[in-house]
Amino acid sequence: MSGARGVLAPYVVARDPATDFLLVSTAEGEEADVYFHSPTGSTSNRFGGDGIMDLPAVLLRRLNAVLVAPGGPTVIQRDEDRELLPASLRNEWPVVVARTGAEIDQAIRSS
């Protein structure tokens, strides 16, 4: 998760090392909570707004990761990544290709 921390570092306005929590904020004042809970996973809360949604897009690109929105879609960066997903994510939930923050926001809102 050091790559994720590196991407988010310029946006961190508060942190709690005891809980591995970061509060990130954009220049527009949009904020989100980020919790690192395993060597390969994190949870984000309160994401919303165009500027803050660009952060997950950058994270997905740089980390070659996927975003699983609870009750919503699984977001991938490239259509060919669909076959790399576990069958449960491919078959039971919508899988959406979204490359930008606006596309990710639209995919989540449409689900």
Offer a few descriptive terms.
111 residues, alpha+beta, four-stranded antiparallel β-sheet, three-stranded mixed β-sheet
Describe it for me?
The chain is of the alpha+beta class. It is built from four helices and seven strands; from the N terminus they run H-E-E-E-E-H-E-E-H-E-H. Helix content is 33%, strand content 28%. It has a four-stranded antiparallel β-sheet with strand order 1-2-3-4, with no helix packed on it. Strands 5-6-7 form a three-stranded mixed β-sheet, covered by helices on one side. A hairpin with a 5-residue loop joins strand 2 and strand 3. The longest helix has 14 residues, at 50-63. The protein is globular, with a radius of gyration of 14 Å. The N and C termini lie far apart (28 Å).
